[in-house]
Amino acid sequence: MKSLGNIRRSFAPWADPQSKPFISFRNITKKFGDFTAVDNLTLDIYHREFFALLGASGCGKSTLLRMLAGFERPTSGEIILDGQDIAAIPPYKRPVNMMFQSYALFPHMTVESNIGFGLRQDGMPKAEIAERVQQMLKLVKLEQFAKRKPQQLSGGQRQRVALARSLAKRPKVLLLDEPLGALDKKLREETQFELMDLQQQLGLTFVVVTHDQEEAMTMADRIAVMSHGKVVQVATPAEIYEAPNSRFVADFIGDVNILEGSVKAAGNGRVELSGGDFTVRAVSDAAPAIGTSAAFAIRPEKLKVSRTAPADPAVNTSEGEIWDIAYLGDMTVFHVKLPSGKVVKTSMLNAQREVENPIGYDEKVWVSFAETAGVVLRD
Amino acid sequence: MKALGSSIFSRLVIIVPYVWLLLFFLIPFVIVFRISLSTTAIAQPPYEPVFSLADGLSGIIDNIRQLSFDNFVWLTEDALYFNAYLSSIKIAGISTLLTLLIAYPIAYGMAQAPRTWRPTLLMLVILPFWTSFLIRVYAWIAILKPEGLLNQSLLSIGVISEPLIILNTNWAIYIGIVYSYLPFMILPIYSALEKMDHSLIEAAQDLGCPPMTAFWKITFPLSLAGVVAGCMLVFIPAVGEFVIPDLLGGSQTLMIGKTLWNEFNSNRDWPVSAAVATVLLLILVVPIVFFQNMQAKADEKGR
């Protein structure tokens, strides 16, 4: 996971009621004919934040980004950037720049003139442009490719040119539309960290659109999970993963087991569910009414598989049978079939190089978890 | 064996266009060029010498001695030909420019149109080809003549008080060429514009270009290959155009196609008309080579 420096750890302007948001979407709605792409959405993004809009395709995340860039006008609502309503400002006058998913490099221009394009539009003196372009080329480590055309570059190099071009004008906000979508896995992982370093180094606000949850979790300070034009949850990656606020978020981010049950007791920060394979006793602030049905979400790595029964087999424990095993190197995934027939997914870190007597197929096991391991979902 | 088979096949594929060019371009050209070196005769065919294998080797050598460049010298002595070439190039040039000015916005509009409309729009562009070219040019006579459709409509709505004289002037030729060749300009420009990634324009705007600047800096340069192709497709045939100046132009209109027709049919002077045709071809080689160069450069870029 992300290595947090000291500065980074204390960076949480969203938690400080004194700090003013840098970008504010206020009751934004965008309709394309009958289709509502963005539905009465309100969202604040702070200065110097690395913010990710995460969701499946068609959830409205790209439309939101395009409204920020100025390519789409909101049907209603306002967008405030640095204290100014920008809804009526055309894209070529906005202090934001965008890195396009397709990179959109100008094929008839060299790398150099691609990067300098925006500066020439602003009428910057030639010497200054040359200097800034050099600086950008150095930043993305492409000095020796200045005279090449985009077609003569590899995918990763093009991505860097696109990044350099969108940063050259020193925008207040950099918008990134699926910035790493076209790169292969290894390069993508490298580039994620480079983007994070760059963002801190330049002190800019980054808004990135992605459908890749791992990418969002790696890079972003906060993530907005979107669905059907609405923001479902806005939180830090850890909060989104550990405390999803809905079945949708729990299911969308990572793997999850959802245990259904009816509420037996609730209050004093604790909830008890029964009715499934488990009697769930969990620490939770949720206070569902007694007798209603509720769900408990728990991540695979937080379920423990063992051959011997835990101390109190009555609570948060169930018997089961190993149904499937997937050995992934760093960890092993077990699918365990519970007495009701439900299959839960568990994963175990392979901390030892060699396992003497590994758990095998069809073996009878106990599945258990701690009271704080999962969340009670409110919906 | 397989490699040998495929190499024979690939050679065959390469040979086909060369054979085509040899049969339908080089050989006819050699025949025309050889006639241009002959002298007129009242005979069938109307020139001499006529080569025949029956003359034997000495006879053929004798015939070759009779060939001369006199007809080409003649072309330089009579100002008529020079003026006809010049005026053809001028008329073709102006017509090409006018065609471009009309075709570009149409092609641009087509490329911007919703994807579902585009096949229909394309069909509408090529629809005039379903009617004979000659009939369409004749129709323009009916439109442009003093008592024609255009003048009648303009007179009836009171824009003009007396008929405009358009037919039998150069304007009628411009109208005829622009109308007839418009699809040849629209199609290559459309194909260049249609391929363009719209996000390039958005990127230009994002970097500070107002829409008009974005057009001149991005859209136009990227459609240049289509513009050049369209201009060549209009200019080259327009220079040698005969039907349009003959039907729509006046008697004073001087174009090389008409001159060639006169030499060939009215004067029955095959050698001089062959010389005229040869020079016309040489003149047109210049823009063709230029075009080839552009294409090669575009290919280089595309790689």
**Unreliable residue runs of chain A:** 1-7
- Secondary-structure content class of chain B: mainly alpha
- Give me the CATH fold name of the domain at 79-259 in chain B: MetI-like fold
User: So, the CATH homologous superfamily of the domain at 79-259 in chain B?
Assistant: MetI-like
For the largest sheet of chain A, list the strands in their spatial order.
6-7-8-3-9-10
Helix content of chain B: over 70%
Provide the residue-averaged pLDDT of chain B.
90
The strand order across the widest sheet of chain B is 1-2
Q: Which CATH class of the domain at 79-259 in chain B applies here?
A: Mainly Alpha
Distance between the termini of chain B: 33 Å
Alpha carbon gap, first and last residue of chain A: 29 Å
Please tally the β strands of chain B and state the result: 2
Mean pLDDT of chain A: 89
Subunit structure (chain A): The complex is composed of two ATP-binding proteins (PotA), two transmembrane proteins (PotB and PotC) and a solute-binding protein (PotD).
GO molecular function, one term (chain A): ATP binding
InterPro entries (chain A): AAA+_ATPase, ABC_SmlMolc_Importer, ABC_transporter-like_ATP-bd, ABC_transporter-like_CS, Mo/tungstate-bd_C_term_dom, NA-bd_OB-fold, P-loop_NTPase, PotA-like
Function (chain A): Part of the ABC transporter complex PotABCD involved in spermidine/putrescine import. Responsible for energy coupling to the transport system.
